[in-house]
Amino acid sequence: MRFAYIRSAVAALSLLSAQASAQEQPLTTRCESAPLMAAFTVFSETGRMPPNMAKFVGDAALNKIEPYKAFDNVYYVGICWVSAWLITSPNGHVLIDTLYGPYTSQLLENIRTLGFEPKDIKLVVVTLGHVDHAGGIGQLKSELAPGTRFAMTKEGWREGAEESPHPRWPWIMIEPDIVLTDGQTVTGGDIAVQAFETPGHTMGTASFAFDARDGARTYRAFTVGGLGLNRIRGPEQVEAFIASVKRIRTLTQDGTRPVELHLTTHGFSTGLTEAKDLLKTRKPTDPHPLVDLPGFRKQLDDLQAGAEKRLVVERQKEAK
């Protein structure tokens, strides 16, 4: 029995060593969704970013991807790790999220590469007050047109101010501008964006619904503000996350204007990195490769299932 115990201990140590070694290896060199999602899941479940993920998010070369046209009026202007979406119109544009650090300058260059002028952005809506989504807000405030408006929830503005002295990526937080309320519709140019308060990832998280045009077809697109549970502060926050996920799912079942697709804040969470390549070879009669309502609903179901497991853990912690 003693030898069996020793073999078991050695095997466990070998596994831990292999896991540690794996976390030191490059996470991805081509922005593949699977390894990024695996690392993100660890981050969400433990609250600790794996070392290779921490290295990856700061590697500008690995994060650079070419901006692209997703729909007739919606363009991807983000990086591998985190999304930014530009919704366009003849009378001005709306930007979802700001990126952070050097990536905000990359975002602006992406917009120009696509043939648009950043100073034509009329409205910037921000999903939450964490660095990867809001860290470029100060730079955009200084570089976009003076009349550009910025919108977050009340709690999102507070979180941004609290988070801005980030240990690795400190950023300048601006004074609150538009304070979003649940269900509110805000406009920029000819674009209407409906905001939903979806607390859970943070308590100030917002999600956004807007129109994405594809030829004669107009889809109701949705950007879920928060996908992870890496900053949980107790069971109440997990309960809020579950309620938000359930609510978003009901929006996909709305009888009047249902949400039909997810344009995510993190491309690896939906396989966006790979799906976008299908846009290059898409024929006029082919379905749009980014429209996957069953996949969106499954993602919501998976998020809920993971959160329900986490809720058990958080309640046990609170009971101790």
Describe this structure in words.
There is one protein chain. The protein is an alpha/beta fold. It has a single domain, classed as Metallo-beta-lactamase, Chain A (4-Layer Sandwich), CATH 3.60.15. 40% of the residues lie in helices and 18% in strands. It has helices at residues 2-24, 33-46, 51-57, 60-63, 102-113, 131-134, 137-143, 154-163, 235-251, 272-275, 293-319; strands at residues 68-71, 74-76, 85-87, 93-96, 121-125, 149-153, 178-180, 185-188, 191-197, 206-214, 217-223, 261-262. It has a 7-stranded mixed β-sheet. It has a 5-stranded mixed β-sheet with strand order 8-9-10-11-12, with no helix packed on it. Helix 9 packs antiparallel against helix 11 (293-319).
The helix content is: 40-55%
Major beta sheet, strand line-up: 1-2-3-4-5-6-7
**What is the overall pLDDT average?**
91
CATH class: Alpha Beta
Question: Spans with pLDDT under 50 lasting ≥5 residues?
Answer: 1-23
Integer-rounded radius of gyration:
20 Å
The count of β-strands is 12
Order of helices and strands: HHHHEEEEHEHHEHEEEEEHEHH
Overall 3D shape: globular
Tally of helical runs: 11
Beta-strand content bin: 15-25%
CATH fold-level topology: Metallo-beta-lactamase, Chain A
Give the SSE layout.
Elements: H1 2-24, H2 33-46, H3 51-57, H4 60-63, E1 68-71, E2 74-76, E3 85-87, E4 93-96, H5 102-113, E5 121-125, H6 131-134, H7 137-143, E6 149-153, H8 154-163, E7 178-180, E8 185-188, E9 191-197, E10 206-214, E11 217-223, H9 235-251, E12 261-262, H10 272-275, H11 293-319
Parallel strand pairs: 4-5, 5-6, 6-7, 11-12
Antiparallel strand pairs: 1-2, 2-3, 3-4, 8-9, 9-10, 10-11
Helix pairs in contact: 9-11
